[in-house]
Design brief:
Layout (H helix, E strand, L loop, with lengths): L6 E6 L4 E6 L1 H12 L19 E9 L5 E5 L1 H6 L9 E2 L13 E11 L2 E11 L1 H12 L10 H23 L3 H18 L6
Helix pairs in contact: 3-4, 3-5, 4-5
Length: about 200
Amino acid sequence: MAFRLNISACLNNCCEELVVSDVSGIQSKLENLILGTDASGWGTASSSNPKTANATAATITITSPLGVSTVTDVLTEVNAYDTTNNTSYLEFSPISPTGDKFSDGLYTITYNVTVNGLDYSSSIQQLFSCNAQCCVDNMWSQLPDHYQLDTYDEWVDRCTKAEVLLKMLKSSANCSNTNAISEILDSLEDICDYNNCNCNS
């Protein structure tokens, strides 16, 4: 099987940084164990696949829901990545947002590497929903303040609606329903603005 890049990504520290990992070696090992295919990950001493030390360019591009792209050079980290066993992964240095937090929405994360004169790429789409989650959590945390008051039932309805919208948002992302993501986020943001959840600061 030919060499193939694979990446994963997650948000850390309350959505203040994005951590992208090169998981080509782990994915290759899984394919070998499950499918019995030849290794598709980075080359080791006994492999003809390209070696990380031979890479001449490597970048991670983050494209926001608004289509704004930021490019991070990761060549130094790729060159230093030890793939002796080809079962590890390379966790790149955290990438920070341009503001305090990443805004909610569907992001595209692309990992490009040039090695031995050939270009390789791996791209994933990932939903960032930290602000929406913060809003829903804050709304539920305020529910006890309304207990035994006339506003209790109304507040329960608001919290429940927000919780359902959040579940819809995550399910839409899992099913790649990009049109629904935008509409649901708009509805959630209206609720959050109305209730002044302060999750965007």
